[in-house]
DNA sequence: CGGGGGATTTACAACGTTAGATACATCGAT
DNA sequence: ATCGATGTATCTAACGTTGTAAATCCCCCG
């Protein structure tokens, strides 16, 4: 049996509360008493029972991060940053995988872990505004990535329209005329895809290029296999793109696989641009040009916002934070003249 | 304030215990009563307070998975499998990142989260046997990956010696004579690296190849950058390998980047073999030959072992489970004749 | 119509902790 | 010596849940 305050108290010859005071750093404990208690704690290897502490205090020291899938490198990288940032607040992070399924996202939002977590960082993909509006759970929540509906939650994201426009403009400025896009979603829920597509279209318009529906490839999910399939379809359709803007890096890497496997040169024949700046893209050959969101900034800001909610209660208007992004041009658009990573 | 059993009870006009019985699926509750209680639960959106429940039951329903870094795709993939498997047991997974640092691994093992977690799945990299032997925490633990010391813990791993030998033999059978290895560790702790190196040496001996220290590259860590650096060093040293066995896929992908960037053809000039079968390797060009451990099997077995420890108490000898692995030959050793992924 | 006995419900205590109130020292100043 | 004032330690009552044991209900048989 694990030792309790009571056991420590008996060993140190003091009351339970005195031990509790020592454990919690209460000021008025005689140095001698404190020393005796600390010795007893060490002797017994005492650890506070968090369940009991939480029951008393109403706090668990645990926050949840809900993401579609840790297999997707972007979310794995985001998760490591969140864990690091949470650690600085003394929080432990628990990870929920929603598989980008609406039903699972609803479960997360509905407060399935109420009482276990103090707060929730949520990166929704499939959720709709009304799902959020119906949320009855009172656990503070910060949304990552896309804004959903008008529900009053703090939100950290990047300006997807601007970022996608810049990416597409980069391709246009390289002289590409038949710029395709991979990653459009048919589902009503693909908010991020919609915004990036809008930026893509804006850039085409600015560059005086005509929009061609045959150059926009839809996908089921955002894995490499989807990108590979979509690229194959584009090539087979005869749309003959000379550049492709992919809505994320894994799609782009899948597309790259298809291109190279078919002997299409990148970037000479087709330039390729991704989104997210995951580590794989830095080491692919050719290395992948991409739009790099400030993942660390996003994670830190989100944790910070949550911390504020937790201390200030529900008070205050929801905050809207736009993290920075920057374009990273690598070999998949510039060719081998670029410096190696 | 969140509703409690008491609130539900009052609304339904029954006692607290009856509500508890309904919540816990106790058999002998009149259908009519059950319905009334369930209605009240729905009305109030009641959620059991896990802290209180855990305090009472001594269980938290949370297990921890401690891995070096989610950024490393192998661990991200393993984590998703663990989360899925744990979910079937009704457990929530909390992830600890140790950064492969001995100090952080010791903290994890010492029971920093005692009382918060019911069990621990631990994938140690830097820990020594004596660290484990000193462990005072009583939380059940299952070791993943490498066996450490003689401490009496359940362990799930693969036969690294055999796997590495098969990988190296595969290269030898392709007619390669100067087979290098990337991923040896100087640190005393790199048990996995040591075993794989042993398998590599066995295979060389069996193939009648002489062992050449200049063909064994040491690395600091197991990221792509380390593989890229190590490969560059190998090429620059004049060791002139015609094949490379990398101790994991990220090292191999880093090495591939260096090779292709320098115009070395893979596999014509240098065949490349990895370890772990991460998704990236399936979509690189050329796709990466690799040794594929049964990650799902490892995760499921580990969770299963933990479940057994939790129900059976500490009883029973520690179990030693060897998961299966299989060789996946792709383009980086076979060339483009292989079927696309 | 009383009693037996299973079905159903309830009362109570306990899990380990901490906040707040209270008691007990100690000590300098009257 | 006595009184506050202050520092230090203890006591008590929760936090929300569930296991145990006991109470009550209800149906059916004799």
Describe this structure in words.
Two copies of one chain form a homodimer. Helices cover 44% and strands 16% of the residues of chain A. Chain A folds into three domains: 5-48, lambda repressor-like DNA-binding domains (434 Repressor (Amino-terminal Domain), Orthogonal Bundle); 60-158 and 294-324, Response regulator (Rossmann fold), CATH 3.40.50; 160-292 and 328-334, Rossmann fold. In chain A, helix 1 packs across helix 2 (16-23), helix 5 packs across helix 13 and helix 8 packs parallel to helix 9. Chain A has 14 helices and twelve strands. Chain A has helices spanning 5-12, 16-23, 31-44, 50-57, 73-88, 102-109, 129-133, 160-173, 191-206, 224-237, 249-261, 279-283, 295-312, 331-334, and strands spanning 62-67, 92-97, 119-122, 141-144, 154-158, 179-184, 216-218, 243-246, 271-273, 290-293, 320-323, 325-328. In chain A, the strands form three sheets. In chain A, strands 2-1-3-4-5-11 form a six-stranded parallel sheet, with helices on both faces. Chain A starts with a helix and ends in a 7-residue tail after the last helix. Chain A is elongated and about 85 Å long. The model of chain A has no long low-confidence stretch (mean pLDDT 91). Chain A is an alpha/beta fold and 341 residues long. In chain A, strand 3 (119-122), helix 7 and strand 4 (141-144) form a beta-alpha-beta unit. The interface between A and B is large, with 55 and 55 residues. The structure holds a DNA duplex (30 and 30 nucleotides).
């Amino acid at each position: 049996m694990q030792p309790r305050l009571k056991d420590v108290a008996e060993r140190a010859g003091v009351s339970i509360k005195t031990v509790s005071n020592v454990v919690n750093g209460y000021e008025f404990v005689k140095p001698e008493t404190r020393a005796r208690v600390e010795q007893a704690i060490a002797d017994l290897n005492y650890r506070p029972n968090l369940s009991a502490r939480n029951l008393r205090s109403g706090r668990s020291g645990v926050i949840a991060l809900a993401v579609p899938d840790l297999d997707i490198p972007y979310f794995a990288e985001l998760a490591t940053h969140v864990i690091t940032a949470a650690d600085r607040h003394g929080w432990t992070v628990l990870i929920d995988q929603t598989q980008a399924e609406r039903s699972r996202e609803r479960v997360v939002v509905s407060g399935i872990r109420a009482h276990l977590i103090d707060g929730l960082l949520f990166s929704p993909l499939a959720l709709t505004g009304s799902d959020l509006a119906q949320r009855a759970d009172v656990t503070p929540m910060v949304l990552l990535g896309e804004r959903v509906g008008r529900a009053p939650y703090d939100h950290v994201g990047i300006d997807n329209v601007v970022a996608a426009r810049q990416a597409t403009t980069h391709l246009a400025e390289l002289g590409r005329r038949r710029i395709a896009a991979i990653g459009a979603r048919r589902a009503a829920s693909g908010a991020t895809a919609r915004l990036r597509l809008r930026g893509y279209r804006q850039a085409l318009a600015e560059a005086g290029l005509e929009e061609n529906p045959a150059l926009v490839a839809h996908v089921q999910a955002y894995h490499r296999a989807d990108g590979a399939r979509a690229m194959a379809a584009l090539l087979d359709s005869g749309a003959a793109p000379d550049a492709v803007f992919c809505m994320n890096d894994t799609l782009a890497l899948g597309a790259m696989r298809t291109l190279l496997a078919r002997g299409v040169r990148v970037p000479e024949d087709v330039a390729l641009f991704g989104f997210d700046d995951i580590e794989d893209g830095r080491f692919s050959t050719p290395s992948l040009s991409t739009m790099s969101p400030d993942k660390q900034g996003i994670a830190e800001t989100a944790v910070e916002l949550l911390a504020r909610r937790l201390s200030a209660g529900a008070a205050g208007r929801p905050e809207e934070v736009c993290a920075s992004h920057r374009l990273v041009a690598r070999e998949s658009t510039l060719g081998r003249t670029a410096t190696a990573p």
